[in-house]
Write a structure and sequence with these properties.
Layout (H helix, E strand, L loop, with lengths): L1 H20 L19 E3 L24 E3 L3 E3 L9 E6 L9 E3 L1 E2 L7 E7 L2 E2 L6 E3 L7 E7 L10 E2 L3 E6 L1
Length: 169
């Protein structure tokens, strides 16, 4: 019985091979290319980026007042003649009311009504979503405090934290 099974497998293999190669022409397929490494970029010289808002009135938290420029210091090696696309992404927890605002914590409060909104060239910089930028002409980033519409913010110092990432595709 084993002899018949083995002979059946050999015959099937030959038949399949015969179907694939019967009546076909062949040629050599040659492939060439050059592997390149993306340019090295740094943000703020590898240092933490600090944006300080100082003291502000609770009523001034309106998404306009207290806007600060975020100097993220993007520096890339030469990107001329390279096929790379540079993405900039902010990774962090967005507020429930604005996808471009980093959730802020107010000391001594459980309130989630304060956020720090980020903008690139005055357009919303949606958190956790890569944005294509030109490394030779990076956009201006700004940050501005925002609040949940209709909310009353408690008094206190606040912090918000996220990670800025530059990646090449």
């Amino acid at each position: 019985m084993l002899h018949y099974i083995l002979r059946g497998i050999v015959i099937c293999s030959i038949a399949v091979s015969g179907i694939v190669t019967a009546g076909t022409n062949s040629t050599i397929l040659s492939m060439k290319g050059t592997l390149i490494v993306p340019p090295v970029c740094t943000l703020n010289g590898g240092q933490k980026i600090n944006v300080v808002f100082d003291e502000m009135g609770i009523s001034d938290v309106d998404g306009i007042n207290n806007t600060k420029t975020v100097d993220y210091g993007l520096v890339c090696q030469s990107t001329n003649n390279n096929p790379w696309v540079l993405n900039l992404t902010v990774r962090g927890e967005a507020t429930s009311y604005d996808s471009a605002a980093i959730q802020a914590q107010i000391n001594g409060s459980s309130s989630t009504d304060l956020g720090i909104k980020l903008l690139l060239d005055n357009k919303d910089f949606i958190l956790n979503k890569p944005i294509i930028i030109r490394p030779n002409n990076p956009p201006v980033m700004t940050a501005v405090p925002v609040k949940n519409p209709g909310a009353t913010l408690p008094e206190g110092a606040f912090t918000a934290t996220a990670t800025l990432v530059a990646t090449f595709e």
